Amino acid sequence: MFNDKRIDFEIVGQAHIGPKNTSGFDLINQRNYLVNDISLAGQREALDKKDGDPDPTLEELEALAAKAVELIGFDNRPFYTGTVEELALKAAVKCLESAHINISEVDMIIGTSNTNGPGYPTLAAEVKSRLATTDSEYAGRTNARCVDVKGACVGGLYALDMAINYLARGKHKCILIIAAEKATELAKKDEWKSSNLFGDGSSSLLVRATTKHHLLAESYGTDPYDNRINYIYNRKDDWKFGQKGKFVHGYIGKAVTNALIKTVTEAKLQKKIKHLFFHQPSKKTGELFYEKVKLHWPQFKGTIHTDLSTGNISSVSVFWLFSKAVEEGKVKRGDTVGFISFGAGMDLGIVFFKY
Fold it and tell me: What is the number of structural domains in the chain?
């Protein structure tokens, strides 16, 4: 335990799981999903067919799928054939291996997911249990306590915030964060305008206590007022995902941008950030974010990292992008990094740190 200096955090391991580095995924393009997986009733709804209108033709369906690809920015989406818990375990093992740290050295596991159901035990406890019988030199038994946090697409950043604060208290030295989603199950298949957005995947960070200064700034908030509570939802009455796209887009363009610029300005980081990782729901949203950063943060000369190959993977996305960039050598030790995410609530998370 460190008593003489402020305890900070450092990322010592990271991982991302997807079809390019792990088996068990099926890639399904928008055309095949619409033609083969959506019912006739769902196809009619997707094309706004009215009673008495003829059933959709293949040409109409293919044109709609092509239009969707142009709008949201991705075609093939990863569908994982196993469970959310399996995805989480894969990310945890890969993260421990990247850090060369055995799970026995971890004293807390924090899980986050929007698609592991309303039951229990926690995702974190499931991973802890499975690590005991996993074939890896970094797996095994651990005394780590386990907890989950649920925060829609901001869940990963809330888990990181929780880890940072637990480390700062001095009672924990090493914390494993795992985000896992089968987001292709968030929306009902026949809700084409929502179900075509999502993909499956998992990601993980391993953070450790340090007296070196890494945390540069952070900002979190929830604004449910003036009906923003209903901008994005998936409620237990029927577990039906829904969103008001126009209002969500406006929230990003104003509230998310304003919070980002305020955080950067107050911390005097305008010229110091090299990398931004923004939650990616779609091409349209990403383009709006890039446009707003360019307009309101002219001093930023770094990289806004994007990769739409996964579709929207909810709480997984920011860590997933970061891990991929580290693996590709685009982010190096000492670089300054920003994580930004938003989600239902409306929740918002921003954190800047030195890697």
Answer: 2
The Cα–Cα gap between 311 and 183 comes to 9
Residue indicated by tokens 């939650």: 279
Contact partners, residue 291, CB within 8 Å, separation at least 6: none
**Residue in the structure block whose two tokens are 């991302």:** 16
In a domain? residue 102: no
Last residue of a domain, one of 53, 75, 97: 75
* Model-wide pTM > 0.85: yes
Which residues on neighbouring strands pair with residue 14, listed in sequence order? 205
Q: Could you report the per-residue pLDDT of 115-166, keeping only the tens digit for each? A: 887 778 999 999 999 999 999 999 999 999 999 999 989 999 999 999 999 9
CATH value at residue 322 = 3.40.47.10
Cβ pair 325, 308 in contact under 8 A: no
Instruction: Look up residue 220 and give its two tokens.
Output: 């979190």
Dist. CA 160–CA 166, nearest whole Å: 10
- Tell me if 46 sits within 8 A of 187, measured CB to CB: no
| Largest interatomic CA distance in the chain | 76
Residue span of the structural domain in which 62 resides: 30-75
Answer yes or no: are the C-beta atoms of 253 and 259 closer than 8 Å. Answer: no
Phi, psi for 116 (deg, rounded to 5): -100, 15
Quote the CA–CA distance of 108 and 105 in Å, as a whole number. Answer: 9
